[in-house]
Amino acid sequence: MDFLLPTLPFGVMILSTLVAILAGFIKGIVGFGMPMILISGLSSFLSPELALAGLMAPTLVTNVIQSLRQGYAAAWHSIIRFRRFMIAGGICLVLSAQLVRVLPSDVLLLIIGVPVALFSLLQLLGRPIKISKPSPRGEISVGIIAGAIGGVSGVWGPPTVTYLTALGTEKTEQMRVQGVIYGLGAIVLVLSHIGSGVVTVSSAPFSLMLVLPAIAGMWLGGQLSERIDQNRFRQATLLVLLFASANLIRRGLMG
After folding, report:
1. Residue 125 burial (CB < 10 Å; 0-12/13-18/19+)?
2. How far apart are the first and last CA of the chain?
3. Can you tell me the distance from the alpha carbon of 124 to that of 120, in angstroms, rounded to the nearest whole number?
4. pTM of the model
5. pLDDT at 56 over 60
6. Cα separation, 51 vs 137, whole angstroms
């Protein structure tokens, strides 16, 4: 990928900054959605590979901030609780990331997009799907799905949030768990795409440029999130999930 930050047109840099602020704002409200918004927004005027490279640094930094909001002990507790999910997801993310240049992601995007859309619609229509007691097999299965799609597309939030919402996770804990899962996933994603050739010395400055706008957007979204009760948080989460899954379906159908 032949790319140097100074060669980007000024207008493209402004647009990229605005996309990062929007992605951070949504993440600040519901705790996820940044990779989905970044990859969708940036790829509308940049190459898919550069868009994928661009989301790496802001996704990693904002998730570290989100995961440590209640301190290291709380973050460690979340790691232990969802360790099966993270291990399964991390392995599949590494494997699928190496296929990003050769594996068509259309079918994979549809496989995850359609069930998540149905889940979100049923929840919003008052027909909730709940998991009363999580099982190791179910947790590993969701981790595999999230990791597989995350390595190919850079987006692994929808299956993760679907699982946490079905468990009825409390707002503060869900935000922290999402930060931990996505943060560790982002580390694996960056390392995987250094190996795949997506993250390079040329593309890294562009990704780093988007960190501060993403943090600013997340701070603004966080101010709004603090004023939202559990029920409204759940509804907002489901609406973002519905939008995210619709976007995955769109990408799967359009290629």
Report:
1. exposed
2. 21
3. 6
4. 0.73
5. yes
6. 34
